[in-house]
């Protein structure tokens, strides 16, 4: 579920935030180098939180999945700056329903810092799903012997 949602979000933002690079969060963030002249949007899974199990005989819980979308921009307030990209991400994802999930909604956004002329913000969006236990097949007792009791007869039949 997580990789599929991440991919769907990347694809959605690729068309909604023009002029910058949109990609999944890098495997090695420390070595990530921003090469695009304007900036980048990086999508990564953040965390899940779970509600109380429902009393259904099986474990069923509400699961909130959160994705952190990091905006990197070389300027802050211009039409292609961090603020504009942050708003474009929020608008593109709020209320959008990715395949196999419920509608997305924003939770928070915040300033991460500025370094070497690159402004960094993160917006966290979420969706919810139901987390179900994996049903394990119970081993049924094997039938080894059948014992017949008295034979019932109707009327004159033997």
The span between the termini is: 65 Å
Any idea what the CATH architecture is? 2-Layer Sandwich
Runs with pLDDT <50, length 5+? none
Write down the CATH class.
Alpha Beta
* Biggest β-sheet description: 5 strands, mixed
Q: What is the strand arrangement across the widest sheet?
A: 1-2-3-5-4
Number of folding domains?
Answer: 1
CATH superfamily: Phage tail protein-like
CATH topology annotation? STM4215-like
Task: Output the number of helix runs.
Answer: 2
Radius of gyration: 27 Å
DSSP E strands, number: 5
What would you note in describing this structure?
There is one protein chain. The protein has 158 residues and is of the alpha+beta class. The chain has a single domain, classed as STM4215-like (2-Layer Sandwich). It is built from two helices and five strands. The protein has a five-stranded mixed β-sheet with strand order 1-2-3-5-4, covered by helices on one side. β4 and β5 form a beta hairpin. α1 packs across α2. The longest helix has 15 residues. 20% of the residues are buried. The mean pLDDT is 86.
């Amino acid at each position: 579920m997580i990789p599929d949602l991440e991919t769907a979000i990347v694809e959605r933002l690729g068309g909604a935030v023009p002029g910058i690079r949109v990609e999944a969060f890098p495997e090695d963030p420390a070595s990530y180098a921003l090469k695009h002249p304007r900036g980048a949007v990086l999508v990564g899974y953040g965390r899940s939180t779970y509600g109380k199990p429902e009393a259904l005989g099986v474990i069923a819980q509400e699961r909130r999945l959160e994705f952190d979308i990091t905006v990197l921009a070389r300027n802050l307030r211009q039409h292609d700056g961090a603020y504009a990209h942050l708003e474009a991400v929020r608008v593109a994802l709020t209320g959008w329903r990715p395949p196999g999930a419920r509608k997305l909604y924003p939770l928070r956004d915040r300033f991460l810092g500025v370094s070497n002329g690159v402004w960094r913000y993160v917006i966290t969006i979420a969706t919810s799903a139901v987390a179900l236990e994996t049903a394990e097949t119970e081993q049924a007792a094997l039938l080894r012997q059948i014992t017949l009791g008295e034979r019932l007869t109707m009327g004159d039949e033997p």
